[in-house]
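From the shared-data thread, chain only:
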Amino acid sequence: MLKMSLSLADLASVRFAISPAWEVVASLRVLRDPGAHAVHLPWVTRHRARVLASPDLRQLRDLVIAPGRHLPGFLAPAPHSPVAEPEAEFAAVRETPATVVREELASVYGDRLPASLSDLRRAPRRNLPMIVGQMRTYWSLTLAPYWGRIRGILEADVMFRARRLADDGPHRMFPELDPAVSWSDDVLTVDRPNLDRDYELGGRGLVLVPSLFAWPNVFVKASEPWAPVLRYPTRGVGSMWHTPSPAPDLAPVIGQARAALLVELATASTTTSLARRTGLTPSGVSAHLARLVTAGLVTRHRAGRLVFYVRTPRADALLRE
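Structure, as tokens:
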């Protein structure tokens, strides 16, 4: 059982963030043991054989798949922004200090470091670009084609949790993250096998990261020098690989662009995310959303610095007809 004591300063600094680098790490762990992650089997079937056989991903596999419980912390640092960009996170990995890389490798592997990682331990700064290159390759092959939909699911979770925190406080929001998570007397507890440690966050705050590929587990990183982070299974994970029934063709009535936006807004999304998924310009998306909000088909909600849009029941009824 892991416990984190949060001061008032920590609670005031709780924030949500989406991390592409973490999805790289978590999805690779899914490929290691697909039977424990049955909800992702459609994705596993498409990518497992190729990833596990590729000589171009060997070092990344040995960093992520080989370890038992713990993972090298430098592979997925806590995001600095609410919706981190893949390249920004890969750059942060590349800039990890050499001493931190060596300490993490020693902590995870002890004297059983895979031979493929010996160069990384000997010269971290020289070899981190190779690891980042493999992360980028893996991302492009297995996650980038689905990122628009994954990001939409994660953004919807952030909106829901942030509103819950604002409306009902931490005593209601924290336990809803996962059945293993509880909150009492300013202590956040994660009841998971092999987790047995107490942390005083000491004003460092806490980053809450919803994750598609974490399901059904909760992951915690709270040791210094890292920013404390808790990764939990996102809401809506079961819908990721489900192909919805075709929606009625509303394009002749409201226009092709607005009809496409309504279909995408089954989960809450930001203007930027919608622009990427539909191919529309951000300014065009904003203009269409304004009309849809006026028509009562879309509603907007603010979560911190992000504004999310989602379909209303009225729009859902139109799409069912």
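The chain has a mean pLDDT of 88.
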